[in-house]
Design brief:
The chain is 62% helix and 10% strand. By secondary structure, the protein is of the alpha/beta class. α1 crosses α12, α2 runs antiparallel to α11 and α16 packs across α18.
């Protein structure tokens, strides 16, 4: 069964805990039966404390209670009954804790796997991946998959409980049990056929609606200024509203399907108890037998009612999560095929200090076009050089940089760093690079955290941080802030200027001792004054670092040692 295989795949190492979980279910059910089995003797003792009647009860065949007074026997039985139900409660709480921990650990594990998978995507696959889909997968898809897995375990638990209780009821009265089983089984089966199977469809439609909701909201939030200028707010609100209403409609249908069985089964059980009373009266059974049977079956009904309701509810959740389980399994299984750029398991050579970059006869063609992206590229860059790269849009500047950083593999040619092929020292090479695009990478955190990215808050290098601030000419700006370097910059750096964002990015490169800095149109969106400030930083450290500056502005590249034009995929020196 594919569904079961997918669940086993998602559980991973956690599936080894399944036998232990099943054992806990049996333990809980055993205490259910013990508690239920004590009800009949206890009621008999309370209603008829005559020891001659008590001797006929199976529970008292192990000990002679004839010398105990009725009052003491009732007190003793009450203590036993309370102790058993107290222990049963403790075990039930413990089992619930274990189930919740099992599911939540699984959820965390899946979210980590997904996040790692998306971060390990090849660059081409990364460009194809919608961020809304990725967020939906990590949040909703994992949540629904784990809910479905939890429902599977809950169903197993409830089935075991009902089986144990059924065995006891068969022992008590097989005719009454058969009647109850027929009524509940028939109604549950009809309900399942009519409604529960629809949950699978609603689960799939709900996932699509949620992804659309995330996508439309992300698009609208990123285009805040444009929407208010061009008046496109209503367009996005309509799309968001449509997705939200669809999501609400599907959730409503699933909620009704999931919650209704309780009331249906409750009616069936009341119907059964009424029939049991009428049949007992017709057969002229004794009041004590009637009360005892009613107590046993009534208590059993109280326990079976939520179990039967939970089974139907869980089956609905399992169907609802069917799409999520299959989709999530497919996503994770395919990750081994799509993450091909992580082909360099470990570096064969390590680069201690950058000395020279040599590119020879490099060719690259985009898969979606017949035109050559880069054609016979030859270039040599030495340590301490600053290279100015310019050319019209679409000429291949960014593609060239992506190949240089190892995100795209050329069809032909070679890239050597210090005489080593890039394939043999990729991770070491990347540890020497700092990439500063036009859209600076800024997280919603403090200036310090943005500079010391990835460093422990308590163990960052304070001296290196201070030096990086001075080299990037951020020191005076930091001193002017009330909270200094602990000032939060906001989402995407919304609380600081574009120039300060670029300085933080440069400070980050200095903090991590990056030797090879690539500025890809990083100053193109800045005003002249801010751009000049950034260029001052570059000129100040030009001989200490190696730079590639990409820009449309000739003024940005004036201080470079060499200017190289890219035109139609070719370098023109």
């Amino acid at each position: 069964m594919q569904y079961q295989k997918n669940i086993n795949f998602l559980l991973g190492q956690n599936r080894k805990k399944i036998p232990y979980m099943v054992f806990l279910f049996f333990l809980s059910s055993s205490f259910d039966i013990i508690g239920l089995g004590l009800i009949a003797p206890y009621i008999t003792i309370v209603l008829s404390p005559d020891n001659t009647l008590i001797d006929s009860l199976y529970i008292f065949t192990f000990y002679d209670f004839s010398n105990i007074s009725s009052k003491d026997l009732i007190i003793f039985s009450s203590i036993i009954l309370l102790a058993v139900f107290l222990l049963k409660t403790v075990i039930a709480v413990f089992i619930n804790w274990r189930i919740f921990k099992f599911i939540l650990d699984t959820r965390a594990s899946l979210q980590i796997k997904l996040a790692e998978m998306y971060l390990d995507l090849s660059y081409s696959e990364y460009l194809k991946k919608s961020s809304a889909d990725a967020i939906d997968n990590i949040q909703m898809l994992v949540e629904r998959s784990c809910n479905a897995i939890q429902s599977v375990f809950r169903t197993i638990s409830e089935i075991v409980t009902i089986l144990f209780i059924s065995c006891f009821l068969i022992y008590t009265s097989i005719l009454a049990f058969s009647s109850m089983l027929f009524l509940i089984g028939t109604v549950s089966f009809i309900y399942y056929l009519l409604f529960t199977s629809k949950s699978k469809k609603y689960g799939e439609l709900s996932s699509v609606a949620n992804r659309n909701l995330l996508k439309h909201f992300q698009e609208s939030s990123m285009g805040y200024k444009h929407l208010h200028i061009f008046g496109g707010k209503n367009f996005f609100l309509d799309r968001i509203g449509s997705a939200a209403k669809k999501l609400s409609s599907y959730a409503l249908k699933v909620s009704v399907i999931s919650s209704s069985p309780r009331y249906v089964i409750e009616f069936v059980l009341i119907f059964f108890i009424v029939i049991l009373i009428l049949v007992s009266l017709i057969n002229a059974n004794s009041n004590l037998d009637l009360i005892t049977n009613l107590s046993i079956f009534g208590l059993a009904a109280i326990r079976i009612l939520p179990s039967a309701n939970n089974i139907l509810n869980n089956l609905s959740q399992i169907k609802f999560g069917n799409f999520a389980i299959n989709e999530l399994s497919s996503e994770l299984k395919n990750s081994t095929h799509t993450n091909k750029h992580v082909s360099y398991v470990s570096d064969r050579y390590s680069i201690d200090d950058f000395n020279e970059l040599l590119i020879s006869e490099l060719f690259f063609t985009h898969s979606d076009t017949k035109q050559a992206g880069l054609n016979n590229i030859n270039l040599k860059i030495k340590k301490g050089e600053s290279i100015g790269l310019y050319g019209p849009s679409g000429s291949g500047k960014t593609t060239f940089v992506d190949i240089l950083m190892g995100f795209i593999q050329p069809q032909k040619g070679s890239i050597n760093i210090n005489g080593y092929s890039i394939e043999e020292c990729l991770f070491s090479w990347r540890s020497k690079i700092a990439y500063l695009p036009q859209e600076t990478f800024i997280i919603d955190a403090s200036i310090k955290e943005n500079i010391t990215l990835g460093e422990d808050k308590e163990n960052y290098n304070e001296l290196k941080l201070k030096q990086s601030l001075e080299m990037s000419m951020l020191s005076d700006y930091i001193k002017s802030l009330p909270q200094g370097i602990d000032t939060h910059v906001g989402e995407r750096g919304a609380r600081i200027s574009g120039g300060q964002k670029q300085r933080i990015a440069i400070a980050r490169a200095f903090y991590f001792d990056r030797e090879f800095l690539i500025l890809d149109e990083s100053t193109s969106a800045l005003d002249k004054e801010s751009e000049e400030d950034i260029l001052k930083v570059i000129n100040k450290t030009k001989k200490l670092k190696t730079f590639i500056l990409i820009s449309h502005r000739s003024s940005t590249l004036e201080s470079c040692d060499r200017l190289i034009q890219i035109k139609s995929g070719q370098l023109i020196h």
